[in-house]
Amino acid sequence: MTEQGKSFRRGPRRASTEEEVVEAALGLLDEGGVSAASIRGIAARIGVAPNAVYTYFPDKAAVIKAIVEHLLGQVDHAVFADPDVPWRRRIELLALELRESLTAHPGAVGLMIGGPMDGPRALALNERLMEVLSGAGFSPTDAAQASYLLIVYVFGSIALDVAELGDVRRAPPEAERIAARYAGFSSIPAETYPLSAAAAHVMARYVSTDQYLWGLRRVLDGLGHSPTRAVASAMPAPVG
Amino acid sequence: MTEQGKSFRRGPRRASTEEEVVEAALGLLDEGGVSAASIRGIAARIGVAPNAVYTYFPDKAAVIKAIVEHLLGQVDHAVFADPDVPWRRRIELLALELRESLTAHPGAVGLMIGGPMDGPRALALNERLMEVLSGAGFSPTDAAQASYLLIVYVFGSIALDVAELGDVRRAPPEAERIAARYAGFSSIPAETYPLSAAAAHVMARYVSTDQYLWGLRRVLDGLGHSPTRAVASAMPAPVG
DNA sequence: AATTTGATCTGTACGGTGTACAAATGGTGT
DNA sequence: ACACCATTTGTACACCGTACAGATCAAATT
């Protein structure tokens, strides 16, 4: 439109925007995997010369950080902050939404855990988690430790999940993946791995939403919710 | 050295071995980070032409898989299988050893979770975990699910830990890292992130061994150890 | 209005990557 | 002695991230 906002810049109008770069990268990531999300590919998609991308970001690492922030930014904190929902359920909802948002772009997950998640969106996530935990009676110290435990579980689960995909652009339906895993596990030699061979039908479901929620609930069980318990475990035992 | 064993191969003697390739890659990984562990770098280190590496591995992905297997292979299962040690402590010892083995090669951790961990060594790890859990009274189904939860926690923790390092070749001492993190967290705006700002001293210790063990113990708490409990949670609730 | 300034974009280029292909090399079985 | 073939090397291709110099063009200054 004719709006131009406040542009105090000099020189010719920009041919693109930071956001357009990020979205182009995300599109390439989805269509062609990590190898397709190159600076040159991004530039071609937004219609500029490869090195023009360096007008918007200093290097590729900065583009990746922006992608990560972009994805973390589209996590809906509203459903998560509703105080009418029990706190455990709120954490489950956040965990499910994170999993959905991130596994929608499998190629981006590797980038996410490839560098530090210290952007404002990651911090906001930590803050939201601590809000819920504080409201549930956790001490500030325990809320922080529990928050990190939850983050480790959620991102660890998602990372192992998409890692198992290899370089696939899009995750196949869950039932299909589980069936493929089960077929693969049928070749486990029962002599050397008897327990694993017997549990193949469970291991095939490691990548399922059910396993994800099961593990999350065990973590929440371990965290407890009584302030007494939280205080009692505030001081971790020294490593021996 | 004059031994030649049974060599039914034809052609000139191999200039190197698969193991030598893996160790060269690991050395480069430690000295120069992931970018240094290139096919050309490996070839130069073992003294052959770059494409000679393809005699030992079909492509770079296969080299990476071999590195991962090599690292998982040097985890000592003996201390972990000692039945005189309580099962929870045995799992703690395995978790600590895994953390030590893997963070000793920070560059390799990214490779590890970059692809599926379906090699025999990973399977052996799962089998050992299930042995311990079965001995603790877990049902086969619960032992498998619990095993995966523990794997997610351990590898998720380690992944987030080394991710925070960036491209550093070697992890600095723990106290140093925590101090650096604390200094970084001092810039958190208390108006927008009050809880995080107040908990900076705890968040700085996210990367500590204490936090690692604290989280592991909460996970173990959540898993419980009574067969009754295990059976009760064998069927995960449907996702809604 | 003319000119200066500086941000933006492009063309070119460098050193790096993984790896495909053909030719040379050198033990092994016949 | 010969043929076979696994192994190694030289060369080459397409791609990568990105540094550098010059052209372009709108805003700020005069």
List the main descriptive attributes of the protein structure presented here.
disordered N terminus, Tetracycline Repressor, domain 2, mainly alpha, 2 domains, 240 residues, Arc Repressor Mutant, subunit A, DNA-binding, homodimer, 13 helices
Task: Give structural notes.
The structure is a homodimer of 240-residue chains. By secondary structure, the first copy, chain A, is mostly helical. Chain A is 61% helix and 0% strand. The first copy, chain A, has 2 domains: 10-71, Arc Repressor Mutant, subunit A, CATH 1.10.10; 75-232, Tetracycline Repressor, domain 2 (Orthogonal Bundle), CATH 1.10.357.10. In chain A, helix 5 (87-103) packs antiparallel against helix 12. The first copy, chain A, has helices at residues 18-32, 39-46, 60-73, 78-81, 87-103, 106-112, 120-135, 140-163, 174-185, 194-198, 200-203, 209-223, 227-232. Residues 1-5 and 227-235 of chain A have low confidence and may be disordered. The structure holds a DNA duplex (30 and 30 nucleotides).
